[in-house]
Amino acid sequence: MRGRDEAAPGAAADATGAADAVPAGPEFRPYDRYWEDFAAGTHLRTRGMTVTETHVVSWANLAGDWLPLHVDQDASSRTDFGSVIAHGPLSLALSLGLVIQTGFFGDAVIAWLGLDEVRLPRPVLPGDTIHVLATVVEHVPTRRPERGRVTLAYDVRNQRDETVLTFRSGFLMRVRDPRPADGG
């Protein structure tokens, strides 16, 4: 392990042997996020992800959910959906992952507090491309000044801009500058 004053391998050194100085200006720190950065109304839209039969079969393997509705083309073709559909929890997991992949939370999250109000108004079919519209709907302090709670509303939509899944998800987050409860 290098000491603080030792140059990284390949770093340029000046005549004294010291590594180049850190560039001027603020450092971009994508993970430097805190509860204060998630005011109510803060929102984002993720990129899209196409749900494939491989996703569906992999989820069936992982969860042990081999209902014909999800894995049997012939049986599912006779349902109201007309084909296999993705598992609801698969769609939920992909939605959570799409938001995580944006870097939206950085390293603010201490703990995931759970889900509420999960609804699936339309099926997700293999070949559908989903994206997430996520909005902070609750931003409240906790009894402990170093923590705050945030709730996001997720609206998951397909390529036709139809809502296929909605839910709320709560998170416990670290506070940038905790103050004692007495305000001092």
Mean pLDDT over all positions? 88
Beta percentage is 25-35%
Shape: elongated
The level 1 CATH classification is Alpha Beta
If helices are DSSP runs of H or I spanning 4 or more residues, what is the number of helices? Answer: 4
> Structural class, please?
alpha+beta
N-end to C-end Cα span: 41 Å
User: Could you state the CATH homologous superfamily?
Assistant: Hotdog Thioesterase
Radius of gyration equals: 23 Å
Stretches where pLDDT is under 50 for at least 5 consecutive residues are none
Share in helix: 10-25%
Task: Provide an overview of this structure.
There is one protein chain. The protein has 184 residues and is α+β, with helices and mostly antiparallel strands. It has one domain: Hotdog Thioesterase (Thiol Ester Dehydrase, Chain A). Helices cover 18% and strands 28% of the residues. Strands 1, 2, 3, 4, 5 and 6 form a six-stranded antiparallel beta sheet that branches. Strand 5 and strand 6 form a beta hairpin. The longest helix has 14 residues. The protein is elongated. It starts with 42 loop residues before the first strand and ends in a 10-residue tail after the last strand. The mean pLDDT is 88.
